[in-house]
Design a protein that fits this description.
The complex is a heterodimer of chains A (about 290) and B (about 70). Chain A has about 290 residues and is α/β, with parallel strands linked by helices. Helix content of chain A is about 35%, strand content about 25%. In chain A, strand 8 and strand 9 form a beta hairpin. In chain A, helix 3 runs parallel beside helix 4 and helix 6 packs parallel to helix 7. The two termini of chain A are about 20 Å apart. Chain B is mainly α and about 70 residues long. In chain B, strand 1, helix 2 and strand 2 form a beta-alpha-beta unit. Classes of the chains: A alpha/beta (about 290), B mainly alpha (about 70). At the A-B interface, helix 5 of A face loops of B.
């Protein structure tokens, strides 16, 4: 079944006329995603390799039937673009952009919640449902369809795990990058809820990292609400406190947000935690075989 | 989002501007990795060690730095 995106996804890409937006938007289309529109203010009426461009996301919805929006717009324009998407009539907004100010996201997060629009990201690689659709920058060739749902703060470590799962002979229902910013539209709990309800997902792999308390809260949620087995990987065991390790949200403050604390919290709730992406994929493949 | 061919071009450009005397371990996988590997193969840089997996690359770095393999 997969979650968030599938064969029914009709995608409008804000930024399709730009260098990165066109590379990844067209790559998504080549994978089989139904790319119905590009959106760039002032370029309505143009096309990108046959994909019509509109001035607004709302027009992409009414004229081209878009139900999903991908935001591939520079940071200083991105929060207004996400806000526009939330108001446009799409069901889902996937925001790839990194560098959106936290203050902007405080407002945008609540706007999405109040309107009931699903927001993934920002600062995320997007969502892949193997064999069905790819929205974002995930290199789909590393993943096969299968019964493992992945939810991750990281992009690259997820591709590593996905490739190892493929080599182990299994695959994924969906891969969801929730993003590396301190405020993201959907967190682990939101995605775990979807995987729990998805009939095609039998096991879940969760990839976290230092910073914040999303993994600790997810551990509580898993114990209370998730019946499917969960395997986790946490990045950042050797990160020094107070140093931002790449992602804006990946920072240890005082004693909180450490990788060890997250590992302990997850293991206390019965989640096995791998110490490397390779080990995590091995544990997941083994557990799947024993189901 | 990072393209392996751009990484490879960056390495080749850098080596034409500075003396790359230290060993450089490279592992390319992901977007445009075949193009990246082709660029590095053609450049044939000395001191460049290529590995296929993350684990092999980490082991090679430790070995070249004089640590236990």
């Amino acid at each position: 079944m997969s979650i968030i995106i599938d064969e029914g996804t009709k995608l409008a890409v804000s930024g399709l006329t730009g260098r990165e937006g066109s590379f990844h938007g067209l790559r998504n289309k080549a994978y089989g995603t139904d790319l119905v529109a590009g959106v760039t203010p002032g370029k309505g009426g143009q096309d990108v390799e046959g994909v019509p461009v509109f001035d607004t996301i709302a027009e992409a919805v009414t004229e081209a039937g878009a139900n999903t929006s991908m935001i591939f717009v520079p940071a200083r324009f991105a929060a207004p673009a996400i806000d526009e998407a939330i108001d446009s009539g799409v069901e889902t907004v996937i925001a790839i952009t990194e560098g959106i100010p936290v203050l902007d996201m405080l407002n945008t997060y609540w706007k999405a919640k109040e309107k009931g629009v699903r927001l993934i990201g920002p600062n995320c690689p997007g969502v892949l449902s193997p064999g069905k659709a790819n929205v974002g920058i995930i290199p789909a060739q590393f993943f096969d369809p299968g019964p493992i749902g992945v939810v991750s703060k990281s992009g690259t470590l997820t591709y590593q795990i996905g490739n190892e799962l493929k080599q182990a002979g299994t695959g994924n229902s969906s891969i969801v990058g929730i993003g590396g910013d301190p405020i993201v539209g959907s967190d682990f709990i939101d995605i775990l809820t979807m995987y729990e309800a998805d009939p095609d997902t039998e096991l879940i792999v969760m990839v976290g990292e230092i910073g914040g308390d999303a993994e600790e809260r997810a551990a509580e949620f898993i114990a209370a609400e998730v019946s499917k087995p969960v395997v986790a990987y946490i990045a950042g065991f050797t990160a020094p406190p107070g140093k931002q390790m790449g992602h804006a949200g990946a920072i240890i403050s005082g004693s909180s947000g450490t990788a060890q604390a997250k590992k302990d919290a997850l293991e206390a709730k019965g989640v096995r935690v791998g110490e490397s992406p390779t080990e995590t994929a091995q544990i997941a493949a083994e557990m799947l075989r024993s189901l | 989002i990072t393209r392996c061919d751009e990484i490879a071009k960056g390495i080749v450009t850098a080596s034409s501007q500075i003396d790359l005397d230290l060993p450089l371990v490279v592992r390319l996988d992901g977007t445009n990795f075949e193009e990246g590997l082709a660029i590095l193969a053609e450049a044939n840089l000395p001191n460049l060690h290529q590995e296929k997996t993350m684990l092999d690359a980490a082991r090679r770095v430790v070995e070249l730095a004089g640590g236990a393999s």
